Amino acid sequence: MTTRAYGQFVVWTMRRFVMMKHLKTFFWLALTVVAVAIASCDRTPGLETRTFELQYMNPGEALEMVRPYVYVDREGAPGVVTHFEAGITVRETEENLDRIGAVLEQYDLPKPGVRLNFQIVEADGFTGRDARIADVQTALEELFRFEGYRLVTEAHMAAIEGTGASQMVGDDERRFQLEAQIRQVRGRGDKATVTIEVMLVSVYGDVRINTSLSVPVGETVVLGSSNPSGSPAIILTVRPELVPLPSGS
């Protein structure tokens, strides 16, 4: 072999060596990338199971409230939530479990007591002003076009959210069955709003008022009625306020 040929052989051999070395490095790099990709695809969130005991909320209501934080359709690691007599059990990520705990802490509170203050007002045929309804007289005159107004009776009922009360009110000439249901209390303190259903039925069975409404705490709402058989029109005012519940309630 000539010197030139020998030199070309050496160069070719070195190039092959370098190429093989690069191929080997590329091969191991490719294996590493594939392994990382597989690991990433296989990585599912770690789930924990936590039980939340409730003091005031209904477990079914709590279950519906936390559903947005439970990913039941998560592939490979679905979340699970169930309820029992005194609470709920959730299987989820630690982060979501902490969120659920914060939500329940915010809403698992004693249901507020609500006092409903009613006035039943008779309209038409009265020229004087009744001092007992002075605080709503102006509102009545703006809403209606009767000749005058006078107070028939007042009533006060207390109940908690989700319950109701009923009371017979009035005098021998004008008696009514007054019923109220506290459907929901949203917010707290002076910012709360009370959703109620009210029905006022005369002693003769005429339904004078039957409605559902939301009233801010401390504000007075005026409800009008029809006057069947030519009887005087009846107007009902209602003002809700939050009251502390008796100890043990």
Q: H/E order of the elements? A: HEHEEHEHEEEEEEE
What is the tally of helical segments? 4
What would you call the quaternary organization? single chain
Kindly estimate the percentage of residues that lie in beta strands according to DSSP.
35-45%
Calculate the mean pLDDT score and round it: 81
What class, by secondary structure content?
A: alpha+beta
The low-confidence runs, each spanning 5 or more residues with pLDDT under 50, are: 9-14, 29-42
| Computed Rg | 37 Å
List the helices and strands and how they pair.
Elements: H1 3-42, E1 48-53, H2 59-66, E2 80-84, E3 87-92, H3 94-107, E4 113-123, H4 134-143, E5 149-160, E6 164-170, E7 175-186, E8 193-202, E9 207-216, E10 221-224, E11 233-243
Antiparallel strand pairs: 1-3, 2-3, 4-5, 4-11, 6-7, 7-8, 8-9, 10-11
Describe the structure.
With 249 residues, this protein is of the alpha+beta class. It has three domains: 1-43; 48-107, Ribosomal Protein S8, Chain: A, domain 1 (2-Layer Sandwich); 113-243, no CATH class. Helices cover 29% and strands 38% of the residues. It contains four helices and eleven strands, in the order H-E-H-E-E-H-E-H-E-E-E-E-E-E-E. Strands 5-4-11-10 form a four-stranded antiparallel beta sheet, covered by helices on one side. A hairpin with an 8-residue loop joins strand 10 (221-224) and strand 11. Residues 9-14 and 29-42 have low confidence and may be disordered.
